[in-house]
């Protein structure tokens, strides 16, 4: 009978019990962790994109509120982000990481003076998720919320 690797007999005496793991056990554990990470990572990335998109939507809604306040004070909607975000120039970066740059769109999207269209252009790691846009028309009290996809399409975002 051959002694096992864990219960090796020594020249000094009877068999003793070795503690620890073998290389094969360690390799199997590393492989299992690698497979789990490979499955979980894409879900984590998608979760981060959705969370950051929600931040962009929140910034758009905040900007719309500021535009409404501006309209109440001045009697027209702002023509640039600088009018509702002082010292922002023509665009305002949203969030700590600056994943979206907010801008007020030109009169092409809002030909009447009673509407405002605010766009959040995605930047950095958020670019592959697309841009966001919110358009509000005062007379009809309608709000259009869109997610402009990188492939040129668009989809509505609701819930806010």
UniProtKB/TrEMBL annotation:
InterPro entries: N_methyl_site (IPR012902), PilE-like (IPR031982), Pilin-like (IPR045584). Pfam families: ComP_DUS (PF16732), N_methyl (PF07963). It comes from the Bacteria. Keywords: Membrane, Transmembrane, Transmembrane helix. The chain crosses the membrane at residues 20-41. NCBIfam families: IV_pilin_GFxxxE. This is Type IV pilin protein. It comes from Banduia mediterranea. The lineage of its organism: Bacteria, Pseudomonadati, Pseudomonadota, Gammaproteobacteria, Nevskiales.
């Amino acid at each position: 009978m051959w002694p096992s690797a864990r219960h090796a007999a020594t020249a000094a005496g009877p068999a003793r019990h070795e503690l620890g793991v073998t290389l094969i056990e360690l390799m199997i554990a590393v492989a299992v962790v690698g497979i789990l990470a490979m499955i979980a990572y894409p879900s984590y990335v998608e979760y981060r994109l959705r969370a950051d998109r929600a931040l962009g939507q929140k910034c758009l809604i905040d900007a719309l509120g500021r535009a409404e306040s501006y309209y109440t004070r001045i009697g027209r909607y702002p023509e640039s982000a600088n009018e509702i975000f002082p010292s922002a120039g023509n665009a305002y970066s949203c969030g700590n990481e600056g994943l979206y740059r907010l801008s007020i769109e030109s009169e092409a999207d809002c030909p009447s003076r009673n509407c405002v269209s605010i766009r959040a252009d995605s930047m950095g790691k958020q670019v592959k998720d697309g841009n966001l846009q919110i358009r509000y028309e005062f007379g009809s009290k309608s709000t259009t919320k869109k997610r402009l996809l990188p492939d040129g399409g668009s989809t509505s975002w609701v819930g806010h």
